[in-house]
């Protein structure tokens, strides 16, 4: 080189060209596919390629042919074609969730027919699926099609999926299933929640009899028929939330001997009768929240000896029959909050020797029998806030060795005594009792165990003592609760402070 200047110019130009070339490799350009293992948009590990949430509009090229797992979620792909995954004959998992895919060409997965086990196509824009798109996928176990806009399924579409275990079609627009749609298949888990299914008889007729999990939440099923699930003796999980049911026919759930989870929340049920249920020796969870239940037949829960969780919150219960929770020695969670209960039988919880959580907040409880929590050796959390309790009898919280939290705020407690508090020698793991720090609590300062319990009593109100424990608040600073009204809740205090501030400003002018 005789001309160093020329060399420098050449060198700079070459460098720019190189940089530009490199950049087009590294940074995805709209409409141009990136090369998978040579781009910042993708990460290539052994047998795994990940190009997720990179705004890609075209599938990457150059995916190594020994890839097992192909993660392509969160991009902007709109279609999948026969060439998309050609040559990739070892892929077991394809993740295409959360793209904008509206079309899949027949034959797109032909190269994976012997290997593909999981196909994630959820959260895309699919309206239909052509028969043949899943052809020959005999190893496919998990098919995710939820959150698309699929309104109909053609017979034959799932024909070859002989290994299918689970298919998720939640959140689509499927109003009915052709009776032959799943013929010959024996998957165990099906999601059909939030479609627009109205005719459940036709739907059930199309389903494989060895189903274990069936999600029909949020459809338009209306009231059901006796024994309609008896063709599915292996069902363990049945979800029927938000379907507008106002009653359950007798024998509705007969034959479901393996049922473990039954969800009936967000319907408009008014009463629960034993005759509707049947024998469910394995039932562990029964959820009935947010219905309009006013009546529960005695003995209904006692036939489910394995019950661990009952959810009855947000109903219209004013009364619970004595003995209603008898025999429930496995129960851990009992949700009764948000009803209109004003008193309870003193023995109602007597068999709940394993209960951890009792939710009774947001009722109209005026009093509590002092024996009601006797023997609850495992009780950890007790929610009694937002009731109408004026007195808690001495000894009510005695004998709770595992109790950690008790919520008592938003009750008009007046006659507060030392005897109503748990004792140090029994409730050794007590963490917090949440209260409104009002003048009614003054007598507690003189209790023999105040040095211990005073640090557990946490002020939920008034705002100025928020996060303080009672032993941090001088006895004389406690003021008496005014009648409950807007001004004395948290929002009220803020509003009052703002008003005070404003009036100060006005006065100072
Ligand atoms: C995978 O690609 C390599 C070259 O990149 C090639 O040598 C090999 O034969 C291919 N294997 C398969 C199974 O296609
Ligand atoms: C599907 O499998 C059948 C038989 O197993 C075979 O004849 C056919 O060619 C396969 N189709 C594709 C597209 O791989
Ligand atoms: C229920 O499950 C058992 C054991 O897994 C199986 O043998 C039986 O065939 C299943 N019942 C139906 C109706 O599929
Ligand atoms: C409780 O269980 C015992 C025996 O385990 C049974 O005799 C009794 O009827 C059950 N109680 C209720 C209310 O079902
Ligand atoms: C019951 O559910 C509906 C929606 O399904 C909701 O709007 C309402 O707030 C719920 N009621 C309670 C008391 O939780
Ligand atoms: C307050 O409680 C104590 C002990 O339980 C009782 O002796 C007393 O009569 C009660 N006072 C009022 C006003 O209820
Ligand atoms: C716990 O202490 C109280 C007094 O502080 C006492 O009356 C009670 O007998 C004690 N209970 C046990 C189980 O030691």
From TrEMBL:
The chain crosses the membrane at residues 490-507. Keywords: Glycoprotein, Leucine-rich repeat, Membrane, Repeat, Signal, Transmembrane, Transmembrane helix. The keyword Signal applies. The keyword Membrane applies. Residues 1-31 form the signal peptide. It comes from the Eukaryota. GO terms for cellular component: extracellular space. Gene3D superfamilies: Ribonuclease Inhibitor. This is Leucine-rich repeat-containing protein 15-like.
């Amino acid at each position: 080189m005789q001309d160093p200047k020329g060399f420098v110019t050449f060198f700079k130009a070459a460098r720019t060209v190189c940089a530009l070339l490199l950049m087009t490799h590294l940074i995805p350009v709209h409409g141009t596919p990136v090369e998978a293992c040579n781009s910042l948009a993708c990460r290539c590990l052994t047998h795994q390629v990940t190009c997720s949430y990179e705004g890609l509009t075209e599938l990457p090229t150059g995916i190594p042919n020994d890839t097992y797992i192909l993660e392509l979620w969160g991009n902007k792909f709109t279609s999948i074609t026969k060439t998309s995954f050609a040559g990739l004959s070892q892929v077991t998992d394809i993740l295409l969730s959360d793209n904008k895919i509206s079309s899949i060409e027949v034959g797109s997965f032909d190269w994976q027919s012997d290997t593909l086990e999981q196909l994630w196509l959820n959260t895309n824009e699919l309206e239909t699926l052509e028969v043949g798109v899943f052809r020959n996928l005999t190893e496919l176990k998990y098919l995710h099609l939820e959150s698309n806009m699929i309104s109909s399924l053609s017979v034959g579409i799932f024909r070859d999926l002989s290994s299918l275990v689970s298919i998720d079609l939640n959140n689509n627009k499927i109003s009915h299933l052709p009776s032959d749609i799943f013929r010959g298949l024996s998957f165990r888990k099906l999601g059909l929640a939030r479609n627009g299914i109205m005719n459940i008889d036709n739907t059930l007729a199309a389903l494989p009899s060895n189903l274990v999990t069936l999600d029909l939440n949020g459809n338009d099923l209306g009231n059901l028929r006796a024994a309609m699930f008896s063709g599915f003796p292996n069902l363990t999980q049945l979800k029927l939330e938000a379907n507008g049911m106002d009653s359950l026919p007798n024998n509705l759930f007969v034959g479901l001997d393996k049922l473990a989870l039954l969800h009936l929340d967000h319907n408009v049920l008014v009463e629960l009768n034993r005759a509707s249920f049947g024998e469910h020796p394995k039932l562990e969870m029964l959820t009935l929240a947010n219905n309009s239940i006013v009546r529960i037949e005695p003995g209904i829960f006692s036939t489910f000896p394995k019950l661990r969780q009952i959810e009855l919150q947000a109903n219209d219960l004013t009364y619970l029959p004595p003995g209603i929770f008898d025999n429930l020695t496995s129960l851990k969670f009992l949700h009764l909050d948000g009803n209109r209960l004003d008193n309870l039988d003193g023995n109602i919880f007597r068999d709940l020797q394993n209960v951890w959580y009792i939710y009774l907040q947001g009722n109209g409880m005026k009093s509590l029998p002092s024996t009601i929590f006797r023997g609850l050796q495992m009780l950890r959390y007790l929610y009694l806030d937002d009731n109408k309790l004026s007195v808690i009898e001495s000894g009510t919280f005695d004998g709770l060795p595992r109790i950690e939290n008790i919520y008592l705020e938003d009750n008009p407690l007046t006659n507060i005594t030392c005897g109503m508090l748990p004792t140090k020698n029994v409730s050794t793991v007590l963490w917090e009792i949440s209260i409104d720090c009002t003048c009614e609590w003054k007598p507690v300062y003189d209790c023999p165990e105040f040095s211990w319990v005073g640090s557990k009593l946490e002020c939920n109100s008034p705002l100025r003592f928020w996060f303080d424990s009672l032993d941090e608040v001088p006895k004389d600073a406690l003021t008496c609760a005014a009648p409950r009204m807007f001004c004395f809740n948290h929002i009220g205090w803020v509003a009052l402070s703002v008003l005070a501030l404003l009036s100060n400003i006005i006065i100072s002018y």
